[in-house]
Amino acid sequence: MTAQGKFVPSLRETAGARDALSFFRNEWNIYQKIVQSNAMHHRDLASLLGAVISKRFAVPFHFFDLACGDGVFAKSVLHGLPVARYQGVDLNENALMQAAETFKNCPYDFELHHGDMVAWVNRNRTPADVMWCGFSLHHLKTCGEKQALFSAIYQSLKPGGLFACVEPTCHAGESREHYLARTRPQVRSRFAALDDQEFSQMWAHISEHDHPETVQSWLSMGVRAGFETSREIYRMPGDLFCAAYLFEKPARRFTQA
Ligand SMILES: C[S@@+](CC[C@H](N)C(=O)[O-])C[C@H]1O[C@@H](n2cnc3c(N)ncnc32)[C@H](O)[C@@H]1O
């Protein structure tokens, strides 16, 4: 089977989305250094997510990748799995050009959308089996914005579908300012692949755009959106920094007579 890929024209961007984009438009190569050195545990997360999906889906499934970047993470998750179709959305056109290269020889159809994931999920009318969002929900500033996206994601999944994400996570009762001060030293050692200039660019981005939530807050958003189960499935080693979460949509809806 020959893979087919296409770009879909831009969606409307929100002001918050434009802010988050400014770093990744200019500094995508710094982020790639971080990923390649496994400083954010992409390799561990890819094998974990691959195992979760293969346990759940023996038949071809549709995978939606929110804020997909260059698609390298998803490609490694999906390797060897029965993928019917991959769809990715990102604000960063450069990253999407790389994603087109990433998927060009894959044995499944792919579609890359340029635009804001919030707008995309809200207008999506083709439900998915699995939705993934890696290190990007935290660009939404408020709990209300994040909750609205969780609810839209729930609506965009088929019954029995899965949503998973990995996001910055703070201790219960910890302020954003305290989280940033506490995690800065460990982030500097995690990002050992970056020189001081690259680290300060990355840290400036994190300080301005990262809006972590507690474990309980991330899980509660899933519950409020309607997911049947919400659980933490991975925590980066060391003092709490980022964790991954899995949310399962009920297989069937029961209506009262
Ligand atoms: C930290 S990178 C993560 C990329 C990839 N998910 C990964 O785990 O390697 C953040 C990505 O989110 C994208 N992004 C941020 N806000 C977005 C939004 N509202 N809609 C779509 N993409 C967004 C950026 O362009 C960037 O590619």
Automatic annotation (TrEMBL):
| CDD domains in alphabetical order | AdoMet_MTases
Give every Methyltransferase domain span: 65-161
| Xref: InterPro entries | Methyltransf_25 (IPR041698), SAM-dependent_MTases_sf (IPR029063)
Keywords linked to the UniProt accession: Methyltransferase, Transferase, Ubiquinone
Q: Which Pfam families match?
A: Methyltransf_25 (PF13649)
This chain's protein is named Ubiquinone/menaquinone biosynthesis C-methylase UbiE
| Originating species | Roseibium denhamense
Traced from the root, the source organism's taxonomic lineage reads:
Bacteria, Pseudomonadati, Pseudomonadota, Alphaproteobacteria, Hyphomicrobiales
